[in-house]
Amino acid sequence: MGRTLQNTMINLGLQNACDEAVYQLGLDMEELEEIEEDAGLGNGGLGRLAACFLDSMATLGLAAYGYGIRYEYGIFNQKIRDGWQVEEADDWLRHGNPWEKARPEYMLPVHFYGRVEHSASGAKWVDTQVVLALPYDTPVPGYMNNTVNTMRLWSARAPNDFNLRDFNVGDYIQAVLDRNLAENISRVLYPNDNFFEGKELRLKQEYFVVAATLQDIIRRFKASKFGSTDSVRTVFDSFPDQVAIQLNDTHPAMAIPELMRIFVDIEKLPWDKAWDITKKTFAYTNHTVLPEALERWPVDLVEKLLPRHLQIIYEINQRHLDHIASLFPNDVDRLRRMSLIEEGDTKRINMAHLCIVGSHAVNGVAKIHSEIVKTQVFEDFAELEPEKFQNKTNGITPRRWLLLCNPGLAELIAEKIGEDYVRDLSQLTKLHEFVDDDLFIREVAKVKQENKVKFALYLEKEYKVKINPSSMFDVHVKRIHEYKRQLMNCLHIITMYNRIRRDPTKLFVPRTVIIGGKAAPGYHMAKMIIKLINAVAQVVNNDPMVGSKLKVIFLENYRVSLAEKVIPATDLSEQISTAGTEASGTGNMKFMLNGALTIGTMDGANVEMAEEAGEENLFIFGMRVEDVTELDKKGYNAQLYYDRLPELKQAVDQIKSGFFSPKEPNLFSDVVNMLFHHDRFKVFADYEAYVKCQEKVSELYLNSKAWTKMVIRNIAAAGKFSSDRTIKEYARDIWHVEPSDLKIPPPNEPRDAGQDKTPNGTAA
């Protein structure tokens, strides 16, 4: 979520008033804002997407709740020591959190372990361990519409009789200390992005948020006028008309068997009725196609922790496979491929399959990704129910990612096209009229220059590095992962360095290359990549032959509040994943909206950005998905590229020989070995096209006016990538609710009692 103060002031229309009031107290608002900790309760794109969605849902007047876990420790703080990443605990609640309100009156029990008893009256889950879920509510204000929604985060609490109702009364002190075991559930965020780690505590977290949330939803449903029993209908007949639940990846997949457990075991609904309601309630968003990221929980673990849920999953699977066998008799391989249970050394539950079978809608997050989901990853399921599969291209909130972080540009745009674009970003197309307006071109360039100077000052203060604000700011910020190919950027840096040294007199367009992002603590290769970037920076930044032509900076502790500073100052946005690996990306959209040009592959939302702006207004290079598939068929041989391309050979040899690590010549042997022998993401295959494309970037940068005109064309084409548009599509195609433009009257105005201002329909 990042910081809340400035976002709240903007959405409430109070920023100028607050700035002025604080100034009159002799304080500086910006200084105050810097004191607030980021709420870093997610890992990367998926978590930030949820935050943008909350802002858009409130702005569109949807009755929506965001549910999650109130981690005591969020994503770790990253320190760079001697070029290596070091993790520190993110004690973000140390000074309290003024934005949250504990709601002990809504505390709920969550059960674990135990066993299942079957009887004539049905199944009973007994002898469980209970953990209490205490909700904390954070307000989510819409933009200038007096709507305030709720983000409800659950914290784990041990019940007061924890370990004391058992017969170990002898050790009272130990029993109280053991309360930590229960409360550890919400202690810390698992820091993996795009990687599945099958730990028991993680499964506990996933079930904890799901069980508490579903009880909360059902409590609210029963308390509403729709939950009252009608003589004709079951209590829950109208449930899917009143409730829509969107699963943000498979992490909350246990909600499907949990809702079935509530309906069948507790509410005593017949299975078929319960299953019909469940499917109509859930929809699933897929966020990655990387096989190592797909959740596959061991059956033994689920059986121990959630025995009843395993039985329900088996029953769901049995009925699912019976259905497929009836459609495709004797096709055992299809049954194996489509089963929720994977046989093998250890039997596992494929959570994505569970989500597809248990949902009425499945979507990818960019056109190209949704195609890959349909035709490759889940092709059997899409063949069975093609109408279930959709696309919903991701978006970003223009409130945080333009108004808040780039007020200069936001104001400049408002002068030209009015202020309405903030709620309807498609209006940015009106900027096309000004693409040849010399004054506007100069003003856009001036705002960018001011942002760069400000960020250069920040870097000087924080990192003690002097950088040239007129150099091209070439920025690559995102989680460190092999598929995102920070290594390819690194090879380009080395190539530029070698060119400068080969001919110091030749014209070189000065660059400041900024790379930032966190590596999962257990991801060895990602940590080596960070060390390599820092080792290269060390050499480049201290070579007198290079001077101010090339600077390399690794941005420490990349997070939302730092993104808000670097993105408005960026000239060139690096979006260079191997085609077919980045589901969407959202950083790409933030850069586009803030006046950076993109160098990127035809991957994720880059494809649609090129479609909107015109491919000639992005720097697109490298293999397309088809080329990658082709290369896989014939076999990728890294050696071929190394032998054919002298500059690539030189760069790799320097890494290999210890040119960048003279004290430890073999420091990067793992990296080099990976690049030659098991590089799934084919860095060498795109190197030549990337370097050539970068030459075109430098050439255009020399012509400031032509560059800025291209920037304006990009901003004018960024309207599609508002999360408001994304949420309208979810509301229309999946949740079946109507967004409302109604501005609720402010609380100080009496409401017209005769008029129900709440739009009838679903809570998402």
UniProtKB/TrEMBL annotation:
<dbReference type="InterPro" id="IPR035090">
    <property type="entry name" value="Pyridoxal_P_attach_site"/>
</dbReference>
<dbReference type="GO" id="GO:0030170">
    <property type="term" value="F:pyridoxal phosphate binding"/>
</dbReference>
<dbReference type="InterPro" id="IPR011833">
    <property type="entry name" value="Glycg_phsphrylas"/>
</dbReference>
<comment type="function">
    <text>Allosteric enzyme that catalyzes the rate-limiting step in glycogen catabolism, the phosphorolytic cleavage of glycogen to produce glucose-1-phosphate, and plays a central role in maintaining cellular and organismal glucose homeostasis.</text>
</comment>
<feature type="modified residue" description="N6-(pyridoxal phosphate)lysine">
    <location>
        <position position="590"/>
    </location>
</feature>
<keyword id="KW-0597">Phosphoprotein</keyword>
<keyword id="KW-0663">Pyridoxal phosphate</keyword>
<keyword id="KW-0808">Transferase</keyword>
<keyword id="KW-0328">Glycosyltransferase</keyword>
<comment type="subunit">
    <text>Homodimer; enzymatically active. Interacts with PPP1R3B; recruits the phosphatase PP1 which dephosphorylates and inactivates PYGL/glycogen phosphorylase.</text>
</comment>
<dbReference type="InterPro" id="IPR000811">
    <property type="entry name" value="Glyco_trans_35"/>
</dbReference>
<keyword id="KW-0021">Allosteric enzyme</keyword>
<keyword id="KW-0119">Carbohydrate metabolism</keyword>
<dbReference type="GO" id="GO:0005737">
    <property type="term" value="C:cytoplasm"/>
</dbReference>
<comment type="similarity">
    <text>Belongs to the glycogen phosphorylase family.</text>
</comment>
<keyword id="KW-0321">Glycogen metabolism</keyword>
<dbReference type="GO" id="GO:0005980">
    <property type="term" value="P:glycogen catabolic process"/>
</dbReference>
<feature type="region of interest" description="Disordered">
    <location>
        <begin position="738"/>
        <end position="764"/>
    </location>
</feature>
<protein>
    <recommendedName>
        <fullName>Alpha-1,4 glucan phosphorylase</fullName>
        <ecNumber>2.4.1.1</ecNumber>
    </recommendedName>
</protein>
<dbReference type="Pfam" id="PF00343">
    <property type="entry name" value="Phosphorylase"/>
</dbReference>
<dbReference type="GO" id="GO:0008184">
    <property type="term" value="F:glycogen phosphorylase activity"/>
</dbReference>
